[in-house]
Amino acid sequence: MSQVPAARRALTVLRLLAAAPGPLPASSIARALDLPRSSTYHLLTAMAEDGFVAHVPEERRWGLGVAAFEIGSAYLRHEPLERLARPLLRRLVDRTGEIAQLGVLHGAETLYLLKEQPPHHATLVTDVGVRMPAHLTASGRSLLAHLPPAQVRALFPGALVDRTGRGPTSLRALRRVLAEDARRGWASEDGHITEGFASIAACAFDHTAHPTAAITVTFRCEAHPPETWPDLAAGIRATAAALTTRLTGRPPRL
């Protein structure tokens, strides 16, 4: 147990370096973490011996090492997001009887990572690995609604594409839609991707309150009239909140 404080300090150093735009001087690390400078040097040296940090002697700075990269790569290989979300999506399918999907932003597109559906359900174009314009999908808009305006502007510098003649066609129109999505906590689309199908989505957040992934339910329009959408959205929001908890995340402050 005597090693626990040292382990926590090492993890704190890794988090600090991961959040920094580049390598940092040891003095900056010591100051940011409120550690004695001598202890910081000893800690960095020990971490460097195991490859978790690397010293750049010409700059007198410290950055993340190869071992940190290996752990990050292993995290991605384990598909943690999909593994954490899959049982939640299955329960959502059981409750709604509709298709549930997990999506993330990939530039200006929605990338679908996971899909769960009840038996004998209609096939959708939005399958695992498929990308769709984020501004047309409920999942994409639920994520975009929580991004800074400047980032949204950078993602959509020109005219917006459409698939079915529906959905926002300009950045100004998209901003109005996103403001409403952010206010109510969920997004929806009606025939923007496929005629006759609608979707409702809510997003999960990471530990910095950044939108990480979206939970979406897609259904035939006649199965759920618009007046029933708020009740359906409540269950989707609860599922997204459960994923946020699994990610040790937190929602943004309103």
Walk me through the topology.
Layout: H1 4-19, H2 26-33, H3 37-49, E1 53-56, E2 61-64, H4 66-77, H5 80-96, E3 99-106, E4 109-116, E5 131-133, H6 138-144, H7 149-155, H8 171-184, E6 187-190, E7 197-205, E8 211-220, H9 229-246
Antiparallel strand pairs: 1-2, 3-4, 3-8, 4-5, 6-7, 7-8
Describe this structure in words.
- The mean pLDDT is 89.
- A hairpin with a 2-residue loop joins strand 3 (99-106) and strand 4 (109-116).
- The protein has nine helices and eight strands.
- The two termini are 40 Å apart.
- The longest helix is centred in the last third of the chain and has 18 residues, at 229-246.
- It is elongated.
- The chain is 44% helix and 20% strand.
- A six-stranded antiparallel β-sheet has the order 5-4-3-8-7-6, sandwiched between helices.
- It has helices at 4-19, 26-33, 37-49, 66-77, 80-96, 138-144, 149-155, 171-184, 229-246, and strands at residues 53-56, 61-64, 99-106, 109-116, 131-133, 187-190, 197-205, 211-220.
- With 254 residues, it is α+β, with helices and mostly antiparallel strands.
- Helix 2 packs across helix 3 (37-49).
